[in-house]
From TrEMBL:
Pfam families assigned to the protein according to its UniProt record, in alphabetical order: Lycopene_cycl (PF05834)
Native source organism of the sequence: Wenjunlia vitaminophila
InterPro entries according to UniProt: FAD/NAD-bd_sf
Listed SUPFAM superfamilies: FAD/NAD(P)-binding domain (SSF51905)
Name under which the protein is recorded: Lycopene cyclase
Gene3D superfamilies assigned to the protein according to its UniProt record, in alphabetical order: FAD/NAD(P)-binding domain
Length: 415
């Protein structure tokens, strides 16, 4: 995405208002908001902030191109960057029964990371507020009461440090915070083009549970159509361990051929990833002037792996607090009640107390999809949560809820 030459950076950016570490979805989104006169709070006579965005120069450490999906009520501030959106979703149960629903007032959206990076890069280049720097961050700490210090190594090997009033770190924490349960949502997807029309361009298949299920955890297909002959087709698992590429490829061939019946098709590209699903508590403030945002700040919903929408809510709140002159502490992505419900589900899945495919099939069969999406966004009230809870396997879930407070949190998340 380019950057400022190291010589210029060392001279011109010894102290800044904001330092953002990491140029993924969270880092780019916060930079985009701070670069805008309205959301950054510097419209009129107020001077714009001085912001530095630090991105690793090592290509192997950057996330591969991928897609980000979420749902929201239109209009949204990212509508111009959206690659595609859909009004309906479908879920298949293990026996082949389908539940399809209009999700109004929501629409399901997709952004391609490469598109987002290019668009935000153009925005930052035009605004001149955010300086992008390629550097390896080696440490972050409070420097004094009114500043924090970020220590880096530039691509040429020179050591450099920048002092900032506020630092926002979006890098995944290592190790993970202590947890009772840690599952991995792991997936591989193909961007396919078929010879004959095979997809409904108005409907996203959120979960296709007709794939073979593991002994413990969950597996499902996921289909995001772009037109009648093109779609992203993914195989996804919830388990303690990921698969090898060959195993994903075999699963995808079987899903595309035996389940979807795509006939002849061409794989034009692939994406693969891993999302941590855990009841660990991710601290959002790790110093007087140092904060974590995005997945590092708890924006991943433990029960689903969705992260993008909560990240946007979080960085909007940060930008608004900064613009108002308040301490820009990232807010919790989800309520304590939502996190508690997710903790119960994760343990019930991990222990095998509930069968994953049956659990999710029942959930979508007995609830409106729009209500479920509101629930998964953490915006339902307690009585709505209770009604949804009654559509799950109540006995195993209650047993898990009762035992959960007594389960020790450990470094590996087991218990």
């Amino acid at each position: 995405m380019g950057g400022v030459p190291p010589e210029e950076v060392v001279v011109s950016v010894p102290e800044v208002d904001v330092a953002i570490v990491g140029a993924g979805a969270a880092g780019l989104s916060l930079a985009r908001l701070l670069a805008d006169p309205v959301t950054g709070g510097w419209a009129g006579d107020r001077a714009p902030p001085v912001v530095v965005l630090l991105q690793t120069p090592e290509a192997r450490l950057r996330p591969a191109d991928r897609t980000w999906c979420w749902w929201e009520e239109p209009p949204g501030d990212l509508d111009g960057l959206t690659f595609a959106s859909w009004p309906r979703v479908r879920v298949y149960d293990p026996g082949g029964g389908a539940v399809e629903s209009d999700i109004a007032p929501y629409r399901y959206h997709m952004i391609r990371s490469a598109d987002y990076e290019r668009a935000v890069g153009r925005c930052l280049d035009r605004g001149g507020v955010v300086r992008r720097v390629s550097a390896t961050v080696t440490g972050i700490s409070d420097h004094r009461d009114d500043a924090a210090e970020v220590r880096c190594v530039l691509p040429g090997g020179a050591r450099w440090q920048v002092r900032a009033r506020w630092v926002f770190d979006s890098r995944p924490p290592s190790p993970l915070p202590a947890a009772r349960t840690v599952l991995l949502q792991h997936f591989r997807g193909w961007f396919v083009r078929t010879r004959e029309p095979r997809f409904d361009p108005d409907v996203v298949v959120l979960m296709d549970l007709r794939v073979p299920q593991p002994e413990c955890g969950l597996a499902f297909g996921y289909v995001v159509p772009f037109d009648r002959c093109a779609a992203l087709v993914e195989y996804t698992g919830f388990s303690r361990a990921v698969l090898g590429v060959a195993a994903y490829e075999t699963a995808l061939r079987r899903y595309a051929g035996d389940v979807l019946g795509l006939g002849r098709y061409r794989v034009e590209a692939a994406e693969q990833g891993v999302i941590v699903m855990t009841d660990a508590v991710f601290p959002r403030r790790v110093g007087r002037r140092v904060f974590r945002i995005g997945a590092a700040g708890g924006a991943t919903r433990p029960s689903t792996g969705y992260t993008f929408a909560a990240t946007q809510r979080q960085v909007r709140a940060v930008a608004a607090a900064y613009a108002a002159g308040r301490t820009p502490v990232p807010p919790p992505a989800y309520s304590a009640r939502a996190r508690a419900l997710d903790a119960v589900l994760l343990r019930a899945l991990d222990t095998g107390r509930v069968e994953g495919a049956d659990f999710f099939a029942r959930l979508f069969r007995r609830n409106r999809a729009g209500t479920l999406l509101r629930f998964l966004d953490g915006s339902t009230r307690w009585h709505q949560d209770a009604r949804i809870g009654l559509t799950t396997p109540v006995g195993p879930m209650l047993r898990t809820a009762v035992e959960l407070p007594w389960v020790r949190r450990g470094a590996a998340g087991g218990g």
